[in-house]
User: Fold this.
Amino acid sequence: MEIFDKALGVHPYSLQVRLDRAEIITSNLANVDTPGYLARDIDYQNVMQSVSAKLESSFHSDAMSGGRDQVKYRVPYQSSPDGNTVDLNVEQAKFASNSMDFQTAITFLNMKIEGLHKAIRGE
Amino acid sequence: MSFDAIYSTGASAMRAQVMRLDTIASNLANANTVASSENDAYRAVKPVFETVYQQTETSFSAQVNMAGVVQTDRPVDQRYEPNNPLSDADGYVYYSNVNELEEMADMMSASRSFQTATSVLNRVSGMQQSILSLGQR
Assistant:
C-alpha cells in the first residue's frame, strides 16, 4: 500500500534499529566468557540521522541498508588478560535501557496508528 | 528475522554455559580421585569458547560455541600413602590436579552468565509480544 508508506514516519526504522541493537548487545552478553571477543555496539543517533536523511531526500524502502557499517567496537573501561572487552554490568545496563527505548518506539508507533484510525473514521 | 537471531544467540550462550558447568562438575567430582601412576591421574578439564559470527548482510549476531575441552597442565599431586591399595611400588599415589577454589569461582561465573542469558530471553520475548499487539486497542 503505497499511500501508507510514509504514514508511520521514522518510527518503524527506529524500532528496527532498537531491535538490531538488542541483537548486538545479546551477542556481547553471550560472549562474556569468550577469550579475545571484542564488544560491539551501534550509535543510535548516527544511524537514525542517516536514515532520516535518506527518508527526506527520496523515499527508499532500503533506508536501513548499510547498517552493518555502523557497528563499532566498544572502548573497554578496563582491559582483561584474555583480551575480552565485554563488561557484564555495562552490557546489562545498555540492554535494559535499549529495551525500554524499544517500548518507547512501540508507544510512538501505536500513537501513529491511533491517529490513522481516527483519520480514516473521520472522528 | 532479528528475533530469531537473538533467540539463537541466547540459546547458544545457555548451551555453552551448561557445557562449562558440566566440566566443572566433572572436575569437582574427581577432585579427590586417586590413581596409581602419574599418567592415569585425573587432570582438570577446561572448556574453550569461540565466537561464531553470522555471515549475512543483515545479521549482527555473534553466537558462542564450545570449540572443545583442554586438560590443564598443572602438575598432579604426588603423595606418599603406602597403605593405599592403589599405591605404586614405591608407595606413592597420584591425586588429581583440580583446584577446588578455582572451580567454585568458575561455577559462580558460569551460573551468572546463564542467568544473564535467561533474563535476556525473557526481555526479548516481552519485546516480541509488544510487536504482536501493535495497533490493538
